[in-house]
UniProtKB/TrEMBL annotation:
The lineage of its organism: Bacteria, Pseudomonadati, Pseudomonadota, Alphaproteobacteria, Hyphomicrobiales. This is proton-translocating NAD(P)(+) transhydrogenase. It catalyses: NAD(+) + NADPH + H(+)(in) = NADH + NADP(+) + H(+)(out). It comes from Methylobacterium marchantiae. Residues 4-139 form the Alanine dehydrogenase/pyridine nucleotide transhydrogenase N-terminal domain. CDD domains: Rubrum_tdh. Its EC number is 7.1.1.1. Keywords: NAD, NADP, Nucleotide-binding, Translocase.
C-alpha cells in the first residue's frame, strides 16, 4: 500500500498533511509513503527531512499520486489533481463540503472515496482525530497574537521608572475551543480578560481560566445549549438585551476577539457599526468568524480595516495556517489517528469498515456516487 502526500495547490494554504513524525508512524505500519517535492516547505519541512524518515520524493503531483492507494491533503483535491488519482483511490482532507456539491460530484465522478475530516463526530473515541478542535485551538491563540501585534500598546501592566503602563482589556466573544484558548493566551500575556457566550456551561470555564464572564443570564440563556453541546440561535429579544450589555462593555475594551459560530448557520452578528464607533482609537477587533460571514460589522476577509475612528478590524483568513508548522503537525496527527483505523495490520492494506460510525460520518463519495446523507440531491 502506498500513501501520497501532495503539495497544496491553493497558494493561500501553507499547511501540509503529513510531517516527518507521522510519516515515521506510517512506515511503522508497513506502508510506503511518497511526498510531492516542496509539499512541506511553507510549514518548515524540506524534502530532505521527509527522505530521512523513509519517504520517497516525487517531482510532481501526477508522479506522487500515480500509484497511491491513499492521498492525504489539507484541502479538497481540485479538478486537475483528480485527473491524476487512481480510480478507487481514497482521499482524506478538510473537504469543506457544504455548498460545494459540484466539487463532491467531481470527486464521485473521478471514482475516488473521499473522506472529510471536519465531519468527524465529536465523541471520545474520535477526539484525537478532531481537526476542528486542533485547528480552532491554534486560531484562538493566533488571534490574540495578531491582536496584540496590531495594538500599539503593551498587553501587561508594567511598573517602570518612567511610569505605569496599564494592562490591556481583552474581551472574547464566543467561548468554544478557539475562545477558550484566546482567553488563556490573553491572560498569559497579562491582559485583563472578560468573555461572553450564549451557552451557560461556558461561565464556569471562563472563570476557571481567571477571566470574568459577561452575559445576560435570563431563562432563555439557561436553556441555550443543544444536546450536542452547541449554541442555539437566540431569540430577537435575547439578542437585543445581549447587544445592550455588550455595547456598554465593548466601549471600554482595548482588544476584542470574536469567535462565535452556530453550526450550519451564518455567524451571528455581535458587534455593530455603532459598537465599533464607540471604541477608543487604537483599539483592535479580531474577527475569527470572518470566513463564515463575520461577527463584526465592517470586517473583511483577508483585510485589516481601519475605521474612521481609528479602530482596526482584523479579518485574517485561515488563521490556523498562520502557524503552519504547528497546525500541520497537529493536523497530520489527527489524520494518522484516523488512517490507522482504516488499515489492516496483517495485510498492511486499506480495509475500510464501511459500517464504522467514524467512516459513515466522514465518507462523502464511494463507487462513483456521493454517498453522504447530508449531500443527497433534494427530492423534487
Ligand atoms: P463553535 O466554533 O461552533 O462556536 C464558537 C462559540 O461561539 C461557541 O461556544 C458558541 O456557543 C458561541 N456562540 C454562538 N453564538 C453566540 C452568540 N450569539 N454570542 C456569543 N457566543 C456565541 O464552537 P466549538 O469550539 O466547536 O465548540 C462547541 C461545543 O463543542 C462546545 O460545547 C465544546 O465543548 C464542544 N466540543 C466537544 C469536543 C469533543 O470532542 N467532545 C471537542 C471540541 C468541542
Amino acid at each position: 500500500m502506498r500513501i501520497a502526500v501532495l503539495t497544496e495547490s491553493d497558494p493561500a494554504e501553507p499547511r501540509v498533511a503529513a510531517v516527518p513524525d507521522t510519516i515515521k508512524k506510517f512506515k511503522g505500519l508497513g506502508v510506503d509513503v511518497t511526498v510531492q517535492s516542496g509539499a512541506g516547505l511553507k510549514a518548515g519541512v524540506p524534502d530532505a527531512e521527509y527522505e530521512a524518515v523513509g519517504a520517497t520524493i516525487a517531482a510532481t503531483s501526477r508522479d506522487a499520486a500515480a500509484d497511491a492507494d491513499l492521498v492525504l491533503k489539507v484541502r479538497r483535491p481540485n479538478e486537475e489533481e483528480l485527473k491524476f488519482l487512481k480510480s478507487g483511490a481514497t482521499v482524506i482532507a478538510i473537504m469543506d463540503p457544504y455548498g460545494n456539491e459540484t466539487a463532491l460530484k467531481a470527486m464521485a465522478d473521478a471514482g475516488v472515496s473521499a473522506f472529510s475530516m471536519e465531519l468527524m463526530p465529536r465523541i471520545t473515541r474520535a477526539q484525537v482525530m478532531d481537526v476542528l478542535s486542533s485547528q480552532a485551538n491554534l486560531a484562538g491563540y493566533r488571534a490574540v497574537v495578531d491582536g496584540a501585534a496590531e495594538y500599539g500598546r503593551a498587553m501587561p501592566m508594567m511598573m517602570t521608572a518612567a511610569g505605569t503602563v496599564p494592562a490591556a482589556r481583552v474581551f472574547v466573544m464566543g467561548v468554544g475551543v478557539a475562545g477558550l484558548q484566546a482567553i488563556a493566551t490573553a491572560r498569559r500575556m497579562g491582559a485583563v480578560v472578560t468573555a461572553t457566550d450564549v451557552r451557560p456551561a461556558t461561565k464556569e470555564q471562563v472563570e476557571s481560566l481567571g477571566a470574568k464572564f459577561v452575559a445576560v443570564e435570563d431563562d432563555e440563556f439557561k436553556q441555550a445549549e443543544t444536546s450536542g453541546g452547541y449554541a442555539k440561535e437566540m431569540s430577537a429579544e435575547y439578542q437585543k438585551k445581549q447587544a445592550e450589555l455588550v455595547a456598554t462593555h465593548i466601549a471600554k475594551q482595548d482588544i476584542v476577539i470574536t469567535t462565535a459560530l452556530i453550526p450550519g448557520r451564518p455567524a451571528p452578528k455581535l458587534v455593530s457599526e455603532a459598537m465599533v464607533a464607540s471604541m477608543k482609537p487604537g483599539s483592535v477587533i479580531v474577527d475569527l468568524a470572518v470566513e463564515r460571514g463575520g461577527n463584526v460589522a465592517g470586517a473583511e476577509a483577508g483585510e485589516i480595516v481601519t475605521t474612521e475612528n481609528g479602530v482596526k478590524i482584523v479579518g485574517h483568513v485561515n488563521v490556523a495556517g498562520r502557524l503552519a508548522a504547528t497546525a500541520s503537525s497537529l493536523y497530520s496527527r489527527n489524520l494518522f489517528a484516523f488512517v490507522e483505523t482504516l488499515i489492516d495490520k496483517e495485510s498492511k492494506a486499506l480495509a475500510v469498515q464501511w459500517d464504522d460510525e467514524l467512516v459513515k460520518a466522514t465518507n462523502l463519495t464511494r463507487d462513483g456516487q456521493v454517498v453522504h446523507p447530508s449531500f443527497q440531491p433534494k427530492a423534487a
